[in-house]
Amino acid sequence: MPHYNHISVAVPAMDELDTMPLLIESLKKQSFGNFDLYVCVNNPDDWWNSADKTDIVNNNIQLINLLNSTNDIKITIIDKCTKGNGWTGKKKGVGMARKLLFDRIIADHNSDNIIVSMDADTTFGPDYLQSIIEKFNTTSHLSAMAVPYYHPLSENNNCNRAILRYELYMRYYMLQLLRIRSPYAFTALGSAMAFTPKAYNLAGGITPLEGGEDFYLMQKFCKTGLISISNTEVVYPSSRTSHRVPFGTGPAVNKGITEQEKSYPFYPSILFDNIKETFYSFDRLYQNDYTTPMTVFLQNQLKTTDIWLPLRKNYKKADLFVKACTERVDGLRILQYLKQEYNNNYQTCINSEIFLKEYCHSQNITLPDDFSLSQSPIGIINDIRNILFHKENRMREEWDNKRLKD
User: Which of 42-51, 340-349, 352-361 has the lowest average pLDDT?
Assistant: First the structure.
């Protein structure tokens, strides 16, 4: 069995002077004490010449001072914010910050180390790091973890309604993937990931995008190793608005209910059933061509009418062929398929909330007759969030128990 005895926490930070103290307090309370903290404080270098960015760059300098004055935690600061050290050109943003953090940690530590990815506005219980180290030490060949999450509510009801709507979208999506036993059943949050240096290198590292970098890294882990999606502890990302990244939680809260319906619909269950049927067809496709529910979509995406023959030629055994098919129809392809089919067949004629209601009904989850994400009291919507949260965690654990034992 593996034996990991140290954790490095990696945090990108921009304009986080108000949130970082809460993260540090969460770290100081950890029952597992053998950890260190790496923070990449960052902003574009040309912001020093922009009057409308003065507050952010000054905030970052104050944050560095705060980190330097923090006791009881070993902190390594990667300075990408002071004059002459900020981002220049196209290499910038949260993805690049995470890359610098991960690469520096791997350079500084040996193979007994676990990297825990986090955001500066995230909190967690005192046993969080202990739960991470225990999971890796008790699970053979584990590459990475996508940790369960829960967004705390605030005193702002507009923000609460927006974050609940977005979290319900994410939970519904995850529950549907778990229902069809998708190998890409994970929720990727930069604040809720952990992995080994070996797995990171095997996956080819992180793609330093300005948004979505966490999703693509977790997808790589799915293809190159074994991931866990359950845990005894939960992380609590902030539900605040944000303009730091082009998409994700902060921008979703900015959008509000109406715009979220356009960007983050509840896709009908039948589309997930189509994905399931396609994945279950891979064995049959090894023998001969067969039209799946995703065939036309894949032909258009891959710009070929012959999707499977090249894979048959390259992979002479059925299990290798199935693995190649699974990697081709990955988490991104699944999302692209759902979006295309929804936009082509549903978007103009229906509010997708009906599919959330249909799913709840199929799972014997009772909703008020007049339930509405835009009109129902926050307490009622939060109750539904909590029901799906607990259901999702049970299914995460069941799926882990099956895959991690196999």
Answer: 340-349
Answer whether 61's CB lies under 8 Å from 16's CB. no
- Helix pair angle (54-68, 20-28), 10° resolution: 20
Whether the CB-CB separation of 127 and 245 falls below 8 Å is answered with: no
Q: If you ran DSSP here, which 8-state letter would residue 330 be given?
A: -
DSSP state of 326: H
Which pLDDT does position 239 carry in this prediction?
A: 77
DSSP strand pairing (123-124 vs 113-117): unpaired
Amino acid at 280: Y
**Which residues, in sequence order, are CB contacts of 235 under 8 Å at separation 6+?**
118, 122, 123, 124, 128, 147, 148, 149, 150, 189, 191, 192
CA 200/CA 114 separation, integer angstroms: 10
Given a contact cutoff of 8 angstroms between Cβ atoms, the answer to whether 35 and 8 are in contact is yes
Residue partners of 343: CB distance under 8 A and separation at least 6: none
1: exposed, middle or buried (C-beta count within 10 Å: 0-12, 13-18, 19+)? exposed
Cα 145 from Cα 188, distance rounded (Å) = 10
How far, in Å, CA of 189 to CA of 208, rounded? Answer: 15
Count, residues in the chain: 406
CA distances from 314 to 185, 193, 320, 321, 403 (A): 27, 33, 9, 8, 27
Contact between 233 and 125 under an 8 Å Cβ cutoff? The reply is yes
pLDDT tens by residue, 381-393:
999 999 999 999 9
The whole-angstrom distance between residue 160's C-alpha and the CA centroid of its chain comes to 20
Over range 204-233, report the average pLDDT.
Answer: 94
In angstroms, rounded to a whole number, what is the distance separating the alpha carbons of residues 332 and 43?
29
Q: Which two tokens stand for residue 207?
A: 């793609």
Residue 40 has phi, psi (to 5 degrees) of -105, 100
List, in sequence order, the alpha helices (H) in 109-156. 128-138
62 phi and psi angles, rounded to 5 deg? -65, -35
Class of domain 6-149+187-233: alpha beta
Domain spans in the chain, listed from the N-terminal domain onward? 6-149+187-233
> Hey, which residues does 235 pair with through a beta bridge?
124, 149
Mean pLDDT across 39-52: 96
Four-residue CA torsion sign, 195, 6, 237, 119: negative
Dihedral sign computed on CA atoms, order 191, 193, 194, 195: negative
The Cα 113–Cα 93 span in angstroms is 26
d(CA 191, CA 119): 5
